[in-house]
Amino acid sequence: MNLSVLILFIVFIIFFAFALILFYVAQSMNKKGLSYLYIAFFLKAIHVLPPVLASFDLNINYSVYINTAIKVSLLPLYYLYLVKLGQQNKSIRLIELWHFAPMAIELILGLAIAPNHAHEVIGRINFNDNSYMKLSIENNFYFNVLSISGKSFALVQCVVYSYLIYYNLYRKYRFKLKQQITNIGSNNLHWIKVAAFLFMAECLLVGLHLFGIYVNQYLYALTYMYLLFFGFYFFIHSILQPDLSFIDDEIDAKNTPKPSKEPDYPHRNREALEKFIHQFVQEKLYLQPELTLAGVAEAFNIPRYKITEMIKMSEYTNFYDLVNQHRVEHSIRLLETLPANHSLDSVGIASGFKSRSSFYRVFKNQVGKTPSSYISVPNSHLKN
């Protein structure tokens, strides 16, 4: 096994491990948006595998069917993960399927070429050097068709997604934060801006790939070191990143027009507020991890703008302040009654938090200390 194949083997192991860990995190913490990332990591592991298998004299004709299609599906998956951070519905929508048009084209090409020419394509590739990283290989027409089309698509994707991540996502999220409708800090968005620059760096690397510069073994190693950094960066921040989907609820509530002829009766609003909060607490809606302003409005048959107006008359800053305060109070009751060795993560989930990071962050904001610090001082109290 030469150096380049060894590097690919290491990349395969790491990305496969990333995929398994994120799959576990997504299932255990109910972070549905992570599905885009663990699928991307799993596909990347499959994408780098053929040269490794070839070094053991295994048949890799299957790669002619799928490898180029996999290559052009990765950046759309990374991008859609970032998009879904700001959406309540994490499922892919029909209008978003255009992101996978290059993948569909490459699948069609693979299906057209592979049945009759897969053996020819693979047989003319020398896996003992890095020549398979070239844009084209002499006397290997069908390989060249797949290679040129796939790498050209990848270059266009890098440019497009770099722009979309920075201008459509990062700037949009930052604008929402400036409206002071959430307690999430700008540091939670900084990495999304960095992701845009990582995609720009990917543009350069794909450009080098188009000219076959990866044939140099040292550049090849450096490129895959960058690839590992790219994957590791997304892997770490995807676990730490809080969900941003609630922001749209707050903005929608602000922008929903209020009926102009509706009279304003303060005493009625106060009564409505007390009734709303009583019912909200009695039904323990705050324990639902996926709770949204829209969902509560539908459940109570009250317009969203009405709920927002009522909450403004209370001691709560906004709807999610109401939700989080009751979640923290519930978690405190659990911490004070459960055994000392009980899992803090399970307390957070039982209190309605989606993840350990959001539980700790909100708890510390409300109480002034982390849950683990709180249980060491039983007489702690909520901050006023």
TrEMBL record:
Enumerate the SUPFAM superfamilies for this protein.
Homeodomain-like
The HTH araC/xylS-type domain sits at 271-377
List, alphabetically, the InterPro entries matched.
Homeodomain-like_sf, HTH_AraC, HTH_AraC-typ_CS
A GO MF annotation of the entry reads: DNA-binding transcription factor activity
Give the keywords, sorted: DNA-binding, Membrane, Transcription, Transcription regulation, Transmembrane, Transmembrane helix
Q: Which PROSITE patterns match?
A: HTH_ARAC_FAMILY_1, HTH_ARAC_FAMILY_2
A Pfam family reported for this protein in Swiss-Prot or TrEMBL: HTH_18
**Where exactly are the transmembrane stretches of this chain?**
6-25, 37-56, 62-82, 94-114, 141-170, 191-212, 218-236
- The highest taxon in the source lineage is Bacteria
This chain's protein is named AraC family transcriptional regulator
Q: What is the organism field in this record?
A: Maribellus luteus
